[in-house]
Amino acid sequence: METSQYKSIDASLQEYFGFSKFKGEQKKIVESVLGGRDTFVIMPTGGGKSLCYQLPALMMGGTAIVISPLIALMKNQVDLVRGYSSNDSIAHFLNSSLNRKQTKLVEEDLRSGNTKLLYVAPETLTKESTQDLLRELDLSFVAVDEAHCISEWGHDFRKDYRNIKKMLQEIKDDIPVIALTATATPKVRQDIIRNLKMEDPDVYLSSFNRSNLYYEIRPKLDRDATISNIVQYIQENKGKSGIVYCLNRKSTEELAETLRVNGVKAAAYHAGFDANTRSRVQDDFLMERVDVITATIAFGMGIDKPDVRFVIHFDIPKSLENYYQETGRAGRDGLEGNCVAYFSQADINKLDKFLRDKSVKEREIGSQHLTEVVGYAESASCRRQYLLHYFGEEFGNDGCGKSCDNCCNPRESMEAKDDAALVLKVVTELGESFRRKYLVDYLMGKKTQDAVGFRHDQKATFGQGKEQTPLYWSSIIQQAMLRGLLEKDIEDYGIIRMTQRGNDFMDAPHAFPISLNHDYSKIVAPPSAAKEAALDDVLLGMLKDLRKQVSGQKNLPPFVIFQDASLNDMATQYPISTDEMANIVGVSQGKARKFGRKFIELIQQYVEDNDIERPNEIITKQVAKKSKSKVSIIQNIDKKVPLPSIADSLGMDLNALFAEIETIVASGTKLNIDYFINDYLDEDQQEEIYEYFLEAETDSIEEALKELDDEDYNDDDIRLMRVKFMSENAN
Ligand code: ADP
Ligand code: ZN
Known about the structure:
single chain, Arc Repressor Mutant, subunit A, six-stranded parallel β-sheet, 17 strands, binds adenosine-5'-diphosphate
């Protein structure tokens, strides 16, 4: 009997989805649902959760209800299911996005019995009319997707989710439930089972280990240094898809702009953009017109791009659930995925401040989540072990090999058997009712108010750890938790308790090697983010020769090819690609392409011949601060507005305007100011100055005035003509 049923499940898998094999535990889960049992599925993103309820729904009589929090995704899911069938009525959704007529059509299909899957938002389920409708139907089971939304301890709590069970009871007694989620700590799991009143459910817990992801934490020093670091990272990963998560909208836009200036195809995404813009950015990313998205957490839900190669957290997320979800978007195809997060205590303090306006309960939950994030960042243990432990999974103490920064660069380890035993003894003696911070203070012999109040300062073990640092004790406690000797009761303010394993250790202590946690407060920024690199005189000489040669061939003065400042920078940075060249002072992308090739070849040869170690940090181009006024200058010149009026409207004097125009032209934008020059200089005069620049060795104004008859011209005339000349020749 069993075998024949297996066969039919396999056949149905093939028939409905065209897949030949089940993934992971899908088959058992499907069987559980078909058997009418309450089922709980915890499976990481990409594991194939949808099929666990879609297949039984298609196989069974009646309609399955799927409760899902994201209206935007429902349509997607429905389209996917319809793709497996010739009949569109097989799947529908009901939510606030449908108008009355559309809702009517759905209702008709439902009543006709053709609909196997009905997606509903929890808000819709609360409506009397929805409940009436559902009561009329033959329901097979209910699937609760993103079930972690039920728990206040989850990362995406929704009030309506807590009422699901009540609403279902209004509709039909004893309808089997399958709950699914991609993240759930043991605490959240408990909440889900309790809240949905699941009866002795079959629980399917897949491993949360994403073995192809590399986890790394970097200290976040000052903002500029961090941005440079990110730009450099992305340039080293040119052309790969990636996401950079920021906390606020402004950061996403600034970072995207900085990346673009540095030659990266980047776009920002956040909830402040209108729907059109958002879907355009998503499309650009999926179609690879854009490589990097800088985004708030609004980005990612439903983004199913399999080949995201890196996820960077410019700002640390507010919980490890968020961190796991967001990093989980890397490497969904099972190939390389790098997860780099920048950590600073200042960011944590900022997140902590946001909690102030919340309710007591939310504040408590929020600050515990932050504590976990800090613990993760500071830990010197395997990142993977830490994350998996957080989600209630054991990974062993040997680390993941080479897939996290801590395993790649292990810190010195020391034997702490006796001290671990001391910690456990203290936890027991103090009645298992204190948090980590208090335990550390106790061991250090700090006479806090509580220590005195509880008379702990009278105890023999009080202050027995004084010889060591708080960091040391904190590290031991954390690693004892990771190894299951202690556990934290998050429901009870995070107090630390003993476990069976801890008691066993007390009876027979064994080796307990630990490494000290990272102490980010001790890491200081290098003296200057923009490294002082030495100017290579030999190379500079060669570059000047080359410039002369090119200028001869092109019949253009040397400064039109590259200005001295640019050559100096090249002789310091050794750019060996067009992109790197475009990062050199005064060199735009266009200019790098137009004049750069020979210079790059020369530098490349030189670097090779002389075994030069190039500075690994090409200076990050900063976004020009006055970009707004630049845009307005360019637009106004396009409209042939007189220059003095432009200067007026921008509140600058003419001199400052000229300076702006010069930088615009120097950075590769053509500007036609003939309309203005023509009013001041006649054709012959213009020609004379132009001819002069064609022959000139330098672009100096003084030099020009000297050479030309300075009776006829003033500074401004020469400057204007120099703009015209550079605009026409240098870009
Ligand atoms: P989750 O909801 O867990 O993130 P999905 O349900 O979106 O995962 O499934 C992830 C991907 O795996 C989808 O592209 C899906 O078509 C595919 N998939 C699911 N089950 C199977 C299977 N048995 N064989 C092959 N591909 C599968
Ligand atoms: Zn590791």
